[in-house]
Amino acid sequence: MPIDIDIAHVARLARLDLTEAELGAYKTQLGVILDHAAKVQSLEGEPHPETAHPLGFVNAFRRDETRPSLDREEVMEQAPARQDGYFVVPPPLDER
Amino acid sequence: MSTGPQLHDLTIVGAGERLRSGDVTSVDLLEAALDRAHRTEAQLHAFLTLDREGAGAASQAADADLAIGRDRGPLHGIPMALKDNMCTRGLETTASSQILAGYRPPYDATVVTRLRDAGAVIIGKTNLDEFAMGSSTENSGYGSSYNPWDITRVPGGSSGGSAAAVAAGSAFGALGSDTGGSIRQPASLSGIVGLKPTYGTVSRYGLIAFASSLDQIGPLSKSVTDAALTLGAIWGHDPLDATSYSGAYPDLTADLDKGVSGMRIGVVSELAGEGYEAAVESAVQEMVGDLAGAGAEIVEVSLPTFEIALSAYYLIAPAEASANLARFDGIRYGHRAPGASTEAMMARTRAEGFGPEVTRRILLGTYALSAGYYDAFYGQAQRVRAAIQDDFARAYRRVDALVSPTSPTVAFKAGDRVDDPLAMYLSDICTIPSNLSGHPAISVPIGVDDQSLPIGFQVMAPALGEQVMFRVAAEVERLAAFTARPVIAEVAS
Amino acid sequence: MSWEPVIGIEVHVELATRSKMFCGCAVSFGEEPNTNVCPVCLGLPGALPVPNKQAIDWIVAIGLALGCEVSERSVFHRKNYFYADLPKNYQISQYDIPVCRDGHLELTVDDMTRVIGIERAHMEEDTGKSTHVGLGGRIHAAEATLLDFNRSGVPLVEIVSKPDIRSAAESRAYAQELRRLVAELGVSDARLEEGSIRFDANVSVRPGGEDEYGVKVEIKNMNSFRSLERAVDFEIRRQIDALEAGGEVVQETRHWDEEAGVTHPMRTKEGSSDYRYFTEPDLVPMVVDAEWIAAIRAALPELPAERRARYVSSGLDDELAGVLSAVAAPLRQVYEDAVAAGAPARQTANWVTGELTAWLRRSETDPEEAPIDGRRLAELVLMVEDGTVSSSAARDVLEGVLLGEGDPSDVAANRDLIQMSDAAELEAAVDAILAANPEAVESFAAGETKVVGFLVGQVMRATSGKADPGLVNRMLNEKLGG
């Protein structure tokens, strides 16, 4: 039996502006996929929090040394909107 | 059109020999590849970007180097293609998504730097399923790719463009990425060699991430030796990748000619039966028999957790992807939609920029991680993953390598599975376990079915067991003696 | 109804490493926007984080200084939320296995020692900076936001206290003490005004004697210790007022408005509380073993609590030990050297925390450049002890030394401040004054003992201030028969 999902909430969490029709379609599809994915619950035992690296090593660090940063021009060239070296975006809801 | 083997049909090893004997130049090799691309791209759409200028300069530099005796190794002067989810500085990199249309990275991926240092000539960027999510390349944001063996069929995915380019001869070798089988499955469907190395052995720095704990870059090529040489050029510790292995790396080519006599090879019992095409199963069984004949001891091995591997994968991969793709918000690069607030702009940008499969997986992943569902889904999937690793460990106490079909079917018709996500996901049932375990696995073409569609044979080995994997794969290649090449229907221009 | 405030404070400390937490970009302030950025801290596709070992060393140091248990194995998590200044739209942080847990911080507030529990200290990365601007000259609502990612990726240690704080004054003391500790460890500039240390407070109230916690309100935007104290004070009263009027306290985040002196509710971000934490797959676990911890512990400077304890055991009372401990390091060095040269601890401490500090402040001299060393201070203190100069004259001697007039003995001689210590000379002076003031003598005999003070003053005048006033006082009392 397909699982019921609050698809509008999930879409909000994921910042996806979907139409009602799209939400409906995804909800159905996700239900079917999750039903299949729920097979993982057939395995007994405590849920695992960590993804174990297959080679199991730890403590991968870098020394506290600086490396050259990117050239700002090259970075800003990719920016959809820019001003005086800043990225420009419309303001967030709580500042409008 | 000539009937004998042409320049573009050569393996990397073969091309390298001709290069060093002075028979051909790198520029010749590039011309051959570009010519082939010119003749086949209308049918195959393997490439998103062909970098004639950059490749031209690189091939000339390669020739100049050779002329003064500076030989950078087996990939020197060889035209190679890169899946378009690897960052190439100044050259458009889109991950096949509209959300990155026109994006030019300000840096090279580590593998790109290493290829350049090895003297390879980067001919262009190949098509893929958007953000590497898919098994047919039909999810590309720029149109599908097609299989050189039958242009009404898919080349597999997500590295379908790289597979098609190598199979067609538009590149002598290519790099792809494999998260659930995305190198091996297209290699199998396109009749070439493709492998996923041990997780952590090839740097992911500069690979546009899909699922961080599963993604690995690997080679697609015409031969097992080519694959070994390519892997050797790109793998090794990278300080820019914290998951990169810094210990000792195996010798990849030492055992290529050793044969399988005395080896114990396990056949995975779960990877057979319903859903597997008869031609695939019989070809695989025949090869298993041949391996036995070549001196290997064949053992039937059961890894029961394989039954739920797909389920675990379809929770872990989308969960990680949902976070990895959050950065695509229209602020610093890529597509931006209008919006009165940051929130509205981001949500509209993402809805416009992502295709349906990517959207589906982001929603799935977000759900699997969200409050109240984490333990039952994501947490539980990681538990299954640990159990799969245990199953593998148990198996490798009994055998040296495991074998199976790479894909349950040969290449399917374009359009057959696009409307049925679950059916599409089942393409990866043989390949996914190795991604979950982080172990290496390779696909070797062993024959074709009665419709001349290629069949791939998968060899799996323990972590850092590439030497064993290549040893078996080389023998499989010898036994298969698979020399057929696709004949690509000319399209009226 | 008596109410008990229950306060917890969250502190974010920017570490003063050379490079950022997960990449090699420089940590540097005041630069042109977006000039210290790279694929990693900009969240470009394909970028990967690699942790800065120095930052880990330093969070362990902070943890040890706070008496925390250092987790032997800890991991990073992704904290997922969308915001313009967060380039990956997730922050690499720590969730349930932080590097440090269960410590404490000692404070002195109103002469009392309080111990505030530390819940945890964890490692994370800072965000970029948003500046909200109006584009067309409008004053009010923002029309656009400008983003600078220079700060994105700077190492941040978040220190969370247990809800053990009970007043606004304690909140301030906690914040100040923590700031001092972190600055002394040398791991951060810890400057509130620069943003290298930031405080948020969680405030609730409950009826006195009750165990159950009230509804908690988070307060943000306190940019000085004073505003922290004011904000907490306001919020406590606001909550009490609301509850006493029969209303409720709403769980929310409020913004402190320094000018108006009030907290306002902030608009809550939709869905912001579901962070969907999962272990960071681009990083491997950290194992901090006993050897590593020992190495960091050995390299720790003396901590304020240790120093206070040392001062107390050398004879200072708690309050003086606390004040001295808080004094600038160069001045503490002067104190320590003076005591090593034989000066008595308490008196020397009083000189350093009193006269010397006051002079440096008046003359606007940096403690680093205090023109006195321990040897000379010791000489001065001993001169007072043995009566060579009176304590009031000694202030002038100190000034002379600080102005470069020479050693204390030279200054005392040159300024004619050496106390009259010859008993006969002193007695002669006292006798002369008694003889010259018969009415005073009579007053004393009639019971007005206070007149001794007047007589002491007369002796001091007659001797140009060089008589030892204490000795004079005693002599007068003896001679007057009191």
Task: Please give a structural write-up.
The complex is a heterotrimer of chains A (96), B (493) and C (482). By secondary structure, chain A is mainly alpha-helical. Chain A has a domain at 7-41. Helix content of chain A is 31%, strand content 6%. Chain A has 3 helices and 2 strands. Chain A has helices at residues 7-13, 20-37, 72-76, and strands spanning 82-83, 86-89. Chain A has a two-stranded antiparallel ribbon with strand order 1-2. In chain A, a hairpin with a 2-residue loop joins strand 1 and strand 2 (86-89). The relative contact order of chain A is 0.09. Chain B has 493 residues and is α/β, with parallel strands linked by helices. Chain B has a domain at 7-258 and 476-480: Amidase signature (AS) domain (Amidase signature (AS) enzymes, Alpha-Beta Complex), CATH 3.90.1300.10. Helix content of chain B is 38%, strand content 12%. In chain B, strands 1-3-2-4-6-5-10-11-9-7-8 form an 11-stranded mixed beta sheet, sandwiched between helices. In chain B, helix 8 links the parallel strand 7 and strand 8. The longest helix of chain B is centred in the last third of the chain and has 24 residues, at 375-398. Chain B is globular. The relative contact order of chain B is 0.14. The model of chain C has no long low-confidence stretch (mean pLDDT 91). Chain C starts with a strand and ends with a helix. Chain C is elongated. Chain C has 3 domains: 3-293, no CATH class; 302-414, no CATH class; 423-480, Arc Repressor Mutant, subunit A (Orthogonal Bundle). In chain C, helix 6 (304-313) packs across helix 7 and helix 11 (391-402) crosses helix 12 (408-414). Chain C is built from 16 helices and 16 strands. Chain C has 482 residues and is α+β, with helices and mostly antiparallel strands. In chain C, the strands form 4 sheets. Chain C has a 9-stranded mixed beta sheet with strand order 2-6-7-10-1-11-12-13-14. A 3-stranded antiparallel beta sheet of chain C has the order 5-4-15, with no helix packed on it. In chain C, strand 12, helix 4 (225-244) and strand 13 (253-257) form a beta-alpha-beta unit. Chains in contact: A-B, A-C, B-C. At the A-C interface, helix 1, helix 3 and strand 2 of A face helix 2, strand 8, strand 9 and strand 16 of C. Strand 2 (86-89) of chain A pairs antiparallel with strand 9 (144-148) of chain C, so a sheet runs across the interface.
